[in-house]
Amino acid sequence: MTDDFIATLPGMASAAADEAARAGRLSVAELLDHLQHALVVIDAQGHIIGYNASVLTLLELPEDLMARGPLIDEVVRWQAARGDLKGDPERLLRRVWHHLRATQTSGQPHVYSYTTASGRTLQGSTIALPGGGWVRIYTDVSKHAQALAALRDSEARFRSLTELSADWYWEWDTEGRYTRLEGRVVRERDIAPLFIGRRPWDVPAPNRPRPEDWRPLLDAVERREPFRHFEVQRVLPDGRTYWFALSGEPVFDAHGTFVGYRGIGRDVTARKQAEATIERLAYYDGLTGLCNRRSFQDRVVQAQASSARSGQWAALCFIDLDNFKDINDAFGHAAGDGLLREMAQRLRESVRAEDMVGRLGGDEFVVLLEDLREDEEQAAWRAQHVAEKLRQALERPAVIDGHDLQATPSIGITLFRGQTDTVEDILGRADLAMYHSKAAGRNAVRFFDPAMQARVVQRATLQRELRHGLRDGELLLFGQPIVDVRAQVCGHEALLRWRHPVRGMVPPAEFIPVAEQTGLILPIGQWVLREACRVLARWAADPARAGWTLAVNLSARQLRQPDFVDSVRQALHAAGADPRRLKLELTESLLLHDVEDTIAKMEALAGLGIQFALDDFGTGYSSLSYLKRLPLTQLKIDRSFVRDLLTDPNDAAIVCTILQLAQSLEMEVVAEGVETAEQFEVLRAMGCRLFQGYHFGRPAPLEPAQPLGETPTGFGVTIIGAAPPA
Ligand SMILES: Nc1nc2c(ncn2[C@@H]2O[C@@H]3COP(=O)(O)O[C@H]4[C@@H](O)[C@H](n5cnc6c(=O)[nH]c(N)nc65)O[C@@H]4COP(=O)(O)O[C@H]3[C@H]2O)c(=O)[nH]1
Q1: 52 lines ligand 1 (CB under 6 A)
Q2: H or E, element range at 357
Q3: Residue with CA closest to ligand 1 atom 28
Q4: Is the distance from CB of 435 to CB of 428 less than 8 angstroms?
Q5: ipTM greater than 0.85, yes or no?
Q6: Residue 374 banded pLDDT, cuts 50, 70, 90
Q7: Name one GO molecular function term (predicted).
Q8: Any ligand 1 atom below 6 A from CB of 477
Q9: Lowest mean pLDDT among 32-46, 271-285, 512-526, 696-710
């Protein structure tokens, strides 16, 4: 190879060889032999007139062939015979010459590649020389070719994966918008149009309706962390709902700049459905869809823990259908199943959403009631109330498969609080109580605890009798005088009495709480108001009593009635009573509920001239801030403070403070429960101006015992002891 020619090919030698050449230690020919590229020089006729050492190693051509200065045709034929070049040698040669000439006319190098029989991939480049002839440079690109092939393989494998599996591939940009979605599922379900250009959290997902439902994913993305199996429910264009699980990882470019996310999506709908089925089978009764024994027991354990925390009683009702076996035998299993489903449905509808209904098997149902009350008796009362509702719901006839069926229930109840008993204990007690119901004649509700049962029955009886009592005129209005500093009657407090046909006079403390719980207090309260207004109207006609006031006790439920103001107005109007003579007594606890509504109602009534007294003052939660906002005219000092006034300096101090407070708020004070002349005296000395108590008169009927005007101190009022002059 001539040095002249080499001079036209600068930059082909390695840097080390170049350096050596410059230092004159290597001839250019030697230098070329150091080249990793193979170099062949061809003259204008096609003879090989030069080559370097790499030709022998890279093209694997024998030296004796090359040293002869063969025609290019000869070399090509030799290569074809060895298997380096595929195809007919004559055609190959025509192509070789075509390209050689083409480089000469175009002046552009011709680049091509081929793989030798030994598997080496060479890239050849033919350059036309200015004076005719060519130089051919060969580079070993085997590694590059292998990398390309591997890439093609990998790409093909990736395609197979996304084509054959339920997974698909996705990419997001830096904002989390889908830029690429690939895979069979994507195509078949037509997913791409729904997502491309949108962020996952911008596309509706039924299981993640609120932005905070996406927090776990967004947190990972904000921290540029990978995420796995993020499950999203999607409604696709085919109208069906699918479950997808997304896994992804952040992508960074060569400079470490975040460029987005990529990952896979997976259709996990089938798995979700299977899970739901498994859960249904594991925790729910297949026939009715109610909880099965296992999940019910779990819930009882939870209820025990929560009752221990809250202090509220819970109840377990055990329900057994009395004649289910007969129905099953007579009408067949299908009808029996239908009946059980119907009963399950009725049970569900009869309780609150948070109450748990279960089926233990056969015709045995259970209902768990939580947060009943802190007081055991009240809790029992509520449980009894619900159980009675369940009994009534179940005993109604049902039409199943055209048959009129009726299955009455026997219900057993047990109360529990805390974690001392096992679930089996609790279930066992309720079961036993259920047998008591059966023994008592079926279609009944019974408590496990006989004493509790007795109290509940007593209460239920009381409630029933009270309803009848109201209807049959057994309620009476008594009055207790309220006197001034001269012990002169200036008004009364109306006190309710129930003249029971068997038990005689029943005090209000016994029946008012039951009336409150059952709602009977509303018609009773209404009756009291009407009676009180009638009494006021009668007093108005008697000059000796025309100035008296009559105070009526109000219950919280009455005040919560939206039409309460109207009902008072109507009672006054119907009787023709003067509203200024009517006082309404409220207790402090009553004021705690919905203060704004209470104030609005009180102000409306005060506008009519009605006065308000706060009963049992000192025992409740009065806060001065709301006392000032209420249109109150009177505070009644609770009798517990009056009782020990003479002996307990604390009580004396409390009474003094209440009197001062009332003075500053410009309110009257009534001292309740004054039983002795001494108490009266001390209270007067303290500045109290109004008094009520046995010392001045016990509650007595508000009916005129004598013709009007004959008793200056009021009806049925006995003044006990001498009233000192003011
Ligand atoms: N130891 C003692 N007691 C005295 C003395 N003076 C009066 N009492 C009693 O104290 C109670 C005063 O009524 P209250 O604090 O409003 O307490 C009343 C009131 O909260 C309620 N109540 C009575 N009638 C009605 C009504 O018509 N509606 C409503 N919602 N509650 C009523 O029942 C509660 C009890 O009423 P009663 O049994 O009539 O009991 C009355 C009365 O008999 C005394 O000197 N010593």
Answers
A1: no
A2: strand 356-361
A3: 553
A4: no
A5: yes
A6: very high
A7: cyclic-guanylate-specific phosphodiesterase activity
A8: no
A9: 696-710
Q: What is the CATH number assigned to the segment(s) 476-701?
A: 3.20.20.450
CATH number of the structural domain 147-274? 3.30.450.20
Q: What is the pLDDT of residue 4?
A: 40
Ligand 1: distance of its center to the CA of 495 in Å? 6
Beta strands in 362-448 (DSSP E): 364-369, 398-400, 403-405, 409-416, 445-447
Task: Tell me, using a 6 A CB cutoff, whether residue 528 lines ligand 1.
Answer: yes
Q: What is the C-alpha to C-alpha distance for residues 397 and 345, in angstroms, rounded to an integer?
A: 14
Please tell me whether residue 356 adopts helix, strand or coil conformation.
strand
User: Which range (82-96, 171-185, 242-256) has the least confidence?
Assistant: 82-96
Give the pLDDT confidence score for residue 618 in this predicted structure. 74
**Stretch (H or E) spanning 232:** strand 227-235
Whether the predicted model's global pTM rises above the 0.90 cut: no
Q: What is the pLDDT of residue 724?
A: 33
Domains 36-140 and 147-274 share a fold: yes
Report the CATH number of the 36-140 domain. 3.30.450.20
CATH number of 284-448: 3.30.70.270
Non-local CB neighbours of 708 within 8 Å, separated by 6+ positions: 538, 541, 542, 545
**126-147 average pLDDT score:** 91
Nearest Cα residue to atom 3 of ligand 1: 673
User: So what's the pLDDT on residue 137?
Assistant: 94
Among all chains, which residue has been given the structure tokens 């230690």?
A: 25
Our measurement of the distance from residue 178's CA atom to the centroid of its chain's CA atoms, rounded to an integer in Å, reads: 31
Parse the chain into domains and list their residue ranges: 36-140, 147-274, 284-448, 476-701
